[in-house]
UniProtKB/TrEMBL annotation:
InterPro entries named among the record's database cross-references: Diverse_Catalytic_Enzymes, HD/PDEase_dom, HD_domain, HDIG_dom, YqeK
Name of the protein in question: bis(5'-nucleosyl)-tetraphosphatase (symmetrical)
SUPFAM superfamilies xrefs: HD-domain/PDEase-like
SMART domains cross-referenced by the UniProt entry: HDc
EC number of this enzyme: 3.6.1.41
Organism: Propionispira arboris
UniProt GO molecular function: bis(5'-nucleosyl)-tetraphosphatase (symmetrical) activity; metal ion binding; nucleotide binding
Keyword line: Hydrolase, Iron, Metal-binding, Nucleotide-binding
Keyword Transmembrane: no
PANTHER family found in the cross-reference section: BIS(5'-NUCLEOSYL)-TETRAPHOSPHATASE, SYMMETRICAL (PTHR35795:SF1), SLR1885 PROTEIN (PTHR35795)
Domain HD/PDEase: 14-142
Length: 187
């Protein structure tokens, strides 16, 4: 499937606002890929499709995950919306003809991160947070950091999202902690 066809297909499946967000993530991911020497096409496709499963209802997400024999922990049971990442990755081939494992992994990791993230995974995680349609306090500094240093930008992104989760008294996913610690242990 060509990118234009993917866009057409996706635009029919997502609400306008989320489709626009997806275009923003694709564009930002492409720019970051160029900056950090990663395949621009893969970044654009992963960015475009990262939320392709985001508009299932909660019940549909659980149903789909069961149908696809996707294992999910107590945390996903508690916060089923997290499943859209792994579901999106699982649907890529049947819905969009994408077999590329790098793209699949980047989509799988885009919500909470994970251990051993590739450059592409980090780019998609960041692009999701900083695309032009986003607006939250401290976004400007994250955007600047993303242009300077990929790992330092990830550290800041994890810090910001963990602070957000803490303020809401919500659960911190252990994969986010793993990914964040990895950067600190390396540095
Ligand atoms: Fe998402
Ligand atoms: Fe997103």
């Amino acid at each position: 499937m060509k990118i234009a066809e993917m866009k057409e297909f996706l635009s029919k499946r997502l609400k306008e606002k989320r489709y626009k967000h997806s275009l923003g993530v694709a564009m930002t991911a492409g720019q970051l890929a160029k900056r950090y020497g990663v395949c621009v096409e893969k970044a654009e496709i992963a960015g475009l499709l990262h939320d392709c499963a985001r508009e299932f209802t909660i019940n549909e997400m659980i149903e789909q995950a069961n149908k696809r024999q996707i294992f999910f922990s107590e945390i996903e049971r508690h916060v089923p919306i997290l499943l859209h990442a792994v579901l999106g990755a699982d649907m890529l081939e049947e819905s969009y003809g994408i077999k590329d494992l790098d793209i699949k992994q980047a989509i799988r990791f885009h919500t909470v991160g994970g251990a051993n993230m590739s450059k592409l995974d980090k780019i998609i995680y960041l692009a999701d947070m900083i695309e032009p349609g986003r607006d939250f306090p401290e976004l400007a500094i994250l955007r600047r950091r993303a242009e300077e240093n990929l790992d330092q930008a990830m550290l800041l992104a994890f810090n910001q999202s963990m602070q957000f989760v803490l303020k809401k008294n919500s659960i911190i996913h252990p994969d986010t902690v793993l990914a964040r610690n990895e950067i600190l242990l390396k540095g």
